[in-house]
Amino acid sequence: MLRSRHIPDTGVMMTQHIVAALTEIKTELIALELWSSLPPSPEALASTAPFCCDTLPFEQWLQFVLLPRMQALLDGGHPLPTKVSILPMAEVAFADYSQDMRLLMYWLGRFDACFQTD
Fold first, then answer.
1. Which pLDDT band holds residue 10 (cuts at 50, 70, 90)?
2. Is residue 64 exposed (0-12), middle (13-18) or buried (19+ Cβ within 10 Å)?
3. Cα separation of 20 and 16, whole Å?
4. Using DSSP, how many helices (H) and how many strands (E) does the chain show?
């Protein structure tokens, strides 16, 4: 389960939404049987391409890059990204998957929405 550390009141609601979205993303990856029991190689994780698209399937990037990095930012009280756009990449990456990805896409969109300032 993803967790949140205490932060100033101004960010509590945003943090709660982020934690909820991250938790649901993990839940959906597991439900869709896209959760990996083995981590990718350090070389694959060291990719400098966006989303490690040259070395990892997108679901592994979510599991081994996005989820732990966001958790580390939350745990450390570090500044969060000001703009996030994961859903468009997910739509492309998962286009040919046979599973019903609608709920995962919903939560990825909710995660992105946490960072919109409009």
1. very low
2. middle
3. 6
4. 6, 0
As a whole number of angstroms, the distance between CA 51 and CA 96 comes to 18
Length of the chain: 118
Place of tokens 């919903």: 106
Is 2's pLDDT higher than 70? Answer: no
Residue with structure tokens 């993990």?
Answer: 26
Q: What 3-state class would DSSP assign to 60?
A: helix
Rounded distance, CA 64 to CA 45, Å?
A: 8
Q: In the structure encoding, which two tokens stand for residue 29, read together? A: 């990856």
Cβ-based neighbours of 86, under 8 Å, separated by 6 or more = 62, 66, 108, 111, 112
* Strand ranges (E), 20-94: none
Contacts of 85 (CB under 8 A, 6+ apart): 112
Alpha helices in the chain (DSSP H): 9-31, 42-45, 58-61, 67-76, 87-93, 102-113
Q: What is the mean pLDDT of the chain?
A: 91
Closest CA to 24 of 105, 117, 115: 105
